[in-house]
Amino acid sequence: MGALTVGLIQLTVGDDPAANLGPTTALIREAAGRGARLVLTPEATNLLSPDRARQKSLLRPEDQDATLAALRAEAQALDIWLLVGSLALASGDADGRFANRSLLIAPDGTIAARYDKLHMFDVTISDTESYRESAAYRPGDRAVTAPAAGTVLGMTVCYDLRFPHLYRTLAQAGARILTVPSAFNPVTGAAHWEPLLRARAIETGCFVLAPAQCGTHAAPTAPTAPRGAATAIRWSSILGAGCWPMAGTIPASPLQPLTFRRWMRHGLAFPRCITTGPLRPRKAMTTPVPNPDKAAEGRSTDRLAASLFAEVLIAEQLSRNLIGKALPKGMQISHFSVLNLLAHVNEERTPAQLAAAFHITRGAMTNTLARLEWAGHVHIRPDWDDARRKFVSISTAGRAARDQAIAGFMPLIAGVVRDIGAERVRGALPVLRELRLRLEADPPKP
């Protein structure tokens, strides 16, 4: 895709959802009127209040929430993608806790994706200030990516920002834009807001869009002053940002176009940091005097390994870029990969098996399969022996789409092979195949 104009909304909401809705919709309309195709609001768009009794009296389940209903209608009327940063919603849980839920609304007004905040803000700021978000809100249980506006969003909320592994997982699942709607604490926000946003952009290679609450928020018990500024970042460079006000509502300001082609060119030499898995401590060294020859050999091997993986990762980025340009309109590499596997095995697979085959989360695979089913490229049927499972198979239309994709990019790949030389490529294949099999070990042995 070329450019995507995004509108980031800053809000200073109070503890009355009905009163908050008017300014929110006005700013969304302004952003859409200035060309934004994707508009994002902050965390706690409908209500920000420390009063749990008031929350309980005002909050409703998702299907009864007046703010959500109005914003769905607004997205449909404006024909935009709207990420509602988060809404405080009644969850129906037995313990009475609420959900802090981010919702992606499609241009037709339907809810395209939901994400419940994973990490609760349970922290002690000082001797007199502490927070226990988990006392009132229950955490979510899954990471979420979602296609929108011609790209893929990785959805997060506020305190999630401090957990880099979540963002690496989203990037590995195909996210190109990471959303971080927030109502950051004034103390930690002043110190960490911008550095953390930059860090997530650097380590994943993604755009980061962070609409924020700002100003001083009136509340029945005491005013609050979240420290934040709506911010967009690419590769650590700030594309646009709000200010750091102490009061008032900040007007929407759609940012400059985010040009994905330009970003891909700049980012090719910097592979994404998408390493997964926990760090494992090394065993204590017991040899009193290390052998210098072995130490030198180890350093040489480390340098060779670093060079190998640098080349592999850069080649992977270049290959994806090359193939992506040649795919039929609307098809993504993740779609083609699934169709190609199903055509190759020529038999049904479960979503879990497909997720395992590509080393991605089941949630990410579910999103891909939903797009393929909508396009008519796969058939998904229930398991007649186990209603909890489903089976996926490639359709006739899917096989044709896969063949069309191969016809589009195969001449490009064949040209690369000719330039390198068929014999040299044939000689490299056993090493690459062994490398793949070695990395598929769970986990690879040191």
List the helices and strands and how they pair.
Layout: E1 3-4, E2 6-8, H1 17-33, E3 38-40, H2 52-58, H3 66-78, E4 81-90, E5 98-105, E6 111-116, E7 122-124, E8 130-132, E9 144-148, E10 151-155, H4 164-172, E11 177-179, H5 186-204, E12 207-210, E13 231-234, E14 237-241, E15 258-259, H6 260-267, H7 292-326, H8 333-345, H9 351-358, H10 362-374, E16 378-383, E17 386-394, H11 396-420, H12 422-440
Parallel strand pairs: 2-3, 3-4, 10-11, 11-12
Antiparallel strand pairs: 1-15, 4-5, 5-6, 7-8, 9-10, 12-13, 13-14, 16-17
Helix pairs in contact: 1-3, 7-11, 8-11, 9-10
Task: Give a structural overview.
35% of the residues are buried. The longest helix has 35 residues, at 292-326. The chain has helices at residues 17-33, 52-58, 66-78, 164-172, 186-204, 260-267, 292-326, 333-345, 351-358, 362-374, 396-420, 422-440; strands spanning 3-4, 6-8, 38-40, 81-90, 98-105, 111-116, 122-124, 130-132, 144-148, 151-155, 177-179, 207-210, 231-234, 237-241, 258-259, 378-383, 386-394. With 446 residues, the protein is α/β, with parallel strands linked by helices. The chain is globular, with a radius of gyration of 24 Å. The protein folds into two domains: 3-267, Carbon-nitrogen hydrolase (Nitrilase/N-carbamoyl-D-aminoacid amidohydrolase, 4-Layer Sandwich); 306-440, Arc Repressor Mutant, subunit A (Orthogonal Bundle), CATH 1.10.10. The chain has twelve helices and 17 strands. It starts with a strand and ends in a 6-residue tail after the last helix. The strands form five sheets. It has a six-stranded mixed β-sheet. The protein has a five-stranded mixed β-sheet with strand order 2-3-4-5-6. Strand 10 (151-155), helix 4 (164-172) and strand 11 (177-179) form a beta-alpha-beta unit.
